[in-house]
């Protein structure tokens, strides 16, 4: 659980003990470092949780604006604190230099559909339930608290290309402009995030790795407060099943102005064609990612914004 | 829909000053329905309206055993049921509009009929509920089979007579106030002038005339020009019970603004801002979320208002803005569980609160089908449970206690055993008597205090 009150300084083991004028903690003892890293891990897990909550959308019913605002404010608060700590910058840099392991999840495609209310009625809502993580295509079902009739399915991809240069950003639910990251090769720590809810122990042991592969933020603009995750966007033929599924979707749904944000974005067909390329066999190299970065801008805004 | 009536007793070890005195009779009306989303007594307490997730409104009527002694046992029976809202589809946004009834507010009664406002996320409707217990009989214009007689064959004038018939309660929509809200309506409040009412969504508040459906006035707008800068939403709003120019609205940041409509047409600039400074020792990442106000209610006398945030109920004196005059902890034991409650979204549950008729006791709900009452005069509180399993007919309902420490006493419940799916979000108090309505997820419980003697 989060400790109350004081903000912890990011203690660098290499630092000399603080000078007498420093009101903060003195020489970083092993205990202090442990406590500090535990706090930052907890904070990181809260950030992950919050970003996931923001991602999940209810495509058929408008999301609860109050809840979205509160979660976004929490993310902002964490990011501010991490920026002051210096951990934000470090995480950014680490991600920039990180290589992407083959089994890392990088892309999420969010599909929301209504399920039979009766079937859901018997279920007690639970927050996250990872069906299974495996290389390649997998789906995750999430039942949101209080929305028993809505099932959100996230289909995630595993990037198999070691070079990730895809766009990575995550805009808040209200942001319009792309939260664009100059550094490339950022990864989304998808599976570990979801794993966290189930088993934080397992993830804590991978703490260091997670810090590197973690959600990135756009540190370029100070005003942007939301973290990022990347999308792998290999070029593949569109998935006909997906197109059929959304053939009736009104493109104006993605007019975020009336939903949460200010300007209209690309329509669902564009979105789906982009995302439907995330088929089970999407293994192409990252070279095509760069060309689709602008499109990804829009895609992610839509996904996250709605 | 109405399944059965169970008679239960309510007992409280506290003094008789608290509404649940020792000699109490409680009746639970169990109504299997869709998830109940709002509960509201009318101004006399004779009628109790509930709205559910399926867009239905069910109205119960009080039937008093002995009208000379109204404090004796009375029943609430189903009086009228109607479908208020239907699911809709917003074609412009390709989004469904839920039919769930968010709020019901009764209008003061002016004639034989009853009127209430019911609202879903987007549309407010004014419903007229009227009784018909007579019909006209004795026309000589029709044949036996209903065909009209040849007018030439009618030679006498017969005036029909009104004869009694079985009571029929009709609900008809009289006004539909639509297309005025971009965001989800969370509050509706009838003004004391009985002519206007306000409706509030996440970012705006509109003022309506009850007679006019094609136009409303926007009186509060907190939508930023750039939605990226949005950090605060409106969570609840209410008119002052006596001053028709005054209303309040609460926000997700824990502030309440009191506005005067005489000051300007747009009341973005508040007349008073009620906010309690944060306790720095309680600061966490969840501080803002738990400070978000889920309900605001004026006292009947108009001197105080009550707010409900996630962990507490606060009473504010309208003359003092910088802090509440009373604070009651509803379930402080949840403070150490905030991360889990954030994870399962329970931290976003919106609990309502209510005053009793003379403003001496306030009530609000909690988890595990618990609800709490705070006696302001005697500084006492009680936790009760609305559940059929734990209450047999005619058995005393005993207060519950949540154990927070290590050693759990008998009959206490540990925090980890609480069922967070069983939440009581909606409660209502009869305006005159000690009768309360408590809604669990699917059931409505009506508890009554029977005075001794």
Automatic annotation (TrEMBL), chain A:
<feature type="compositionally biased region" description="Acidic residues">
    <location>
        <begin position="180"/>
        <end position="210"/>
    </location>
</feature>
<dbReference type="InterPro" id="IPR009263">
    <property type="entry name" value="SERTA_dom"/>
</dbReference>
<feature type="compositionally biased region" description="Low complexity">
    <location>
        <begin position="17"/>
        <end position="33"/>
    </location>
</feature>
<dbReference type="InterPro" id="IPR052262">
    <property type="entry name" value="E2F-SERTA_domain_protein"/>
</dbReference>
<dbReference type="GO" id="GO:0051301">
    <property type="term" value="P:cell division"/>
</dbReference>
<dbReference type="Pfam" id="PF06031">
    <property type="entry name" value="SERTA"/>
</dbReference>
<feature type="domain" description="SERTA">
    <location>
        <begin position="39"/>
        <end position="86"/>
    </location>
</feature>
<feature type="region of interest" description="Disordered">
    <location>
        <begin position="174"/>
        <end position="218"/>
    </location>
</feature>
<keyword id="KW-0131">Cell cycle</keyword>
<dbReference type="GO" id="GO:0005634">
    <property type="term" value="C:nucleus"/>
</dbReference>
<protein>
    <submittedName>
        <fullName>Cell division cycle associated 4</fullName>
    </submittedName>
</protein>
<keyword id="KW-0132">Cell division</keyword>
<feature type="region of interest" description="Disordered">
    <location>
        <begin position="1"/>
        <end position="33"/>
    </location>
</feature>
TrEMBL record, chain B:
<comment type="similarity">
    <text>Belongs to the phosphatase 2A regulatory subunit B family.</text>
</comment>
<dbReference type="GO" id="GO:0019888">
    <property type="term" value="F:protein phosphatase regulator activity"/>
</dbReference>
<dbReference type="InterPro" id="IPR036322">
    <property type="entry name" value="WD40_repeat_dom_sf"/>
</dbReference>
<dbReference type="InterPro" id="IPR000009">
    <property type="entry name" value="PP2A_PR55"/>
</dbReference>
<dbReference type="InterPro" id="IPR015943">
    <property type="entry name" value="WD40/YVTN_repeat-like_dom_sf"/>
</dbReference>
<dbReference type="GO" id="GO:0072554">
    <property type="term" value="P:blood vessel lumenization"/>
</dbReference>
<dbReference type="GO" id="GO:0000159">
    <property type="term" value="C:protein phosphatase type 2A complex"/>
</dbReference>
<protein>
    <recommendedName>
        <fullName>Serine/threonine-protein phosphatase 2A 55 kDa regulatory subunit B</fullName>
    </recommendedName>
</protein>
<keyword id="KW-0853">WD repeat</keyword>
<dbReference type="InterPro" id="IPR018067">
    <property type="entry name" value="PP2A_PR55_CS"/>
</dbReference>
<keyword id="KW-0677">Repeat</keyword>
<dbReference type="InterPro" id="IPR001680">
    <property type="entry name" value="WD40_rpt"/>
</dbReference>
<dbReference type="Pfam" id="PF00400">
    <property type="entry name" value="WD40"/>
</dbReference>
